[in-house]
């Protein structure tokens, strides 16, 4: 996205809000809903709009785990490490993802295919250990219960096959 | 402004009404350990948890920076309960602070060293585990260096930068053990909104902000 387009979109979001400081977090949430992350330009614009320092916006945004500062991958993977998942070996699952994708928690693969995040409880502890696989392009979320490291391979393989199938269809169309 | 009479460690003290116990004691030459206190600040930050005192008639020890003086108040600054609280706060701070005093620019002028000397504490984390961070030192600014590893997060520089100088270059970011003093977006200080007033350097109690 071009910088001007980005700024235009940000100001569009800001317009619908009041200028009181209490709107800071709702605005950050709105920006993240729109872009999938909080671009530095947005923090600058929010600061100007609400009349507070950009540093303050950054401070508030970094305080909360819900905000991210890099765009998520096409497949965003959330690994639950809440109490139940922790007991059931959630960290082993996280390690499996990290090893397979060759990134650390909070990072994105260089091709922007996958991003990895740890979360605390997604609300289905009976299925522990749980991973959530989010398709950020189509906006779909799948819950993967009773995860095993081999299941990580399985999920990644199915994505690979899907990718190949899409390529094939594309090839045939051409 | 009217004055009130109280005793601190059995010494009679005369202080202005509305003054906090901390400043009344410091004015009277009685040392109460503190890192985050700034006299001009209307609402104390009260984050360092070092300025504990016991007040006669009050069950629990109180932070002296947030407690205003009252007529006839009897304050003790060195009771066993106070000493225990101060020790714990101090050890928690040291558990997160690299003790490399010989090579630190603040050596002999450091508030942590002063507290250790005053209370005969060792610069060791005691019962706590040493948890050091390895954050990059920011020396991009022409006037001073910011070493976030040494920072005790007292918030004095943040308050000055935002409320007094209104440069708004520094603020807290992240949380818990990852909390740091930083610029917007973690930019190097040399590229930030810093107006180079160097007030932050003058209020830093430790060696986190030092002049070049």
How would you describe this protein?
The complex is a heterodimer of chains A (174) and B (212). Chain A contains seven helices and four strands. Chain A has helices spanning 3-15, 24-35, 40-50, 54-63, 83-87, 90-101, 149-173; strands at residues 75-80, 114-119, 131-135, 140-144. Chain A starts with a helix and ends with a helix. The mean pLDDT of chain A is 91. Chain B is 21% helix and 16% strand. A five-stranded mixed beta sheet of chain B has the order 2-1-5-3-4, sandwiched between helices. In chain B, strands 6-9 form a two-stranded antiparallel sheet. In chain B, strands 7-8 form a two-stranded antiparallel ribbon. In chain B, a hairpin with a 6-residue loop joins strand 3 and strand 4. The N and C termini of chain B lie far apart (42 Å). The mean pLDDT of chain B is 94. The A-B interface holds A 40, 43-44, 47, 53-59, 62-63 and B 162, 168-175, 182-186, 193.
Unreliable parts of chain B: none
The gross shape of chain A turns out to be globular
Strand order of the largest sheet of chain B: 2-1-5-3-4
Categorize the overall geometry of chain B. Answer: globular
* Helix-residue proportion of chain A: 40-55%
How do the helices and strands follow one another from N- to C-terminus of chain A? HHHHEHHEEEH
Cα end-to-end separation of chain B: 42 Å
Q: Profile the largest sheet of chain B.
A: 5 strands, mixed
Work out the helix count of chain B.
5
**Can you identify the CATH class of the largest domain in chain A?**
Alpha Beta
Q: Structural class per helix/strand content of chain B?
A: alpha+beta
């Amino acid at each position: 996205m071009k910088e001007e387009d980005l700024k235009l979109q940000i100001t569009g979001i800001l317009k619908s809000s009041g200028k009181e400081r209490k709107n800071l977090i709702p605005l950050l949430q709105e920006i993240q809903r729109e872009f999938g992350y909080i671009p530095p330009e947005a923090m600058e614009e929010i600061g100007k709009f609400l009349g507070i320092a950009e540093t303050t916006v950054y401070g508030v945004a970094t305080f909360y785990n819900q905000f991210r500062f890099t765009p998520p991958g096409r497949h965003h993977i959330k690994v639950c490490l809440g109490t139940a998942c922790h007991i059931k070996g959630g960290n082993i699952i996280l390690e499996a993802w990290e090893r397979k994708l060759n990134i650390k928690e909070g990072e994105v693969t260089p091709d922007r295919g996958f991003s990895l995040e740890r979360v605390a409880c997604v609300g289905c502890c009976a299925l522990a250990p749980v991973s959530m696989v989010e398709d950020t392009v189509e906006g779909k979320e799948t819950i993967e219960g009773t995860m095993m490291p081999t299941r990580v391979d399985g999920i990644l393989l199915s994505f690979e096959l899907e990718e190949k199938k899409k390529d094939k269809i594309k090839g045939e169309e051409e | 402004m009217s004055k009130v009479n109280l005793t601190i460690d059995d010494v009679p003290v005369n202080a202005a009404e509305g003054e906090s116990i901390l400043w009344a004691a410091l004015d009277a030459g009685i040392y109460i350990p503190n890192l985050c206190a700034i006299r001009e600040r209307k609402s104390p930050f009260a984050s360092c948890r070092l300025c504990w005192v016991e007040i006669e008639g009050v069950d629990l020890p109180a932070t002296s920076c947030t407690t205003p003086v009252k007529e006839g108040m009897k304050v003790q600054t060195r009771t066993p309960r106070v000493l225990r609280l101060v020790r714990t706060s101090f050890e928690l701070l040291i558990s997160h602070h690299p003790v490399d005093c010989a090579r630190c620019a603040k050596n002999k002028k450091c508030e942590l060293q002063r507290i250790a000397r005053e209370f005969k504490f060792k610069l060791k984390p005691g019962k706590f585990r040493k948890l050091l961070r390895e954050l990059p030192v920011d020396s991009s600014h022409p006037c001073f260096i910011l070493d976030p590893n040494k920072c005790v997060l007292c918030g004095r520089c943040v308050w000055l930068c935002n409320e007094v100088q209104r440069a708004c270059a520094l603020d807290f970011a992240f949380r818990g053990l990852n909390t740091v003093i930083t610029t917007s977006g973690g930019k190097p200080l040399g590229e930030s909104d810093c107006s180079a007033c160097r007030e932050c350097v003058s209020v830093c109690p430790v060696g986190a902000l030092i002049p070049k």
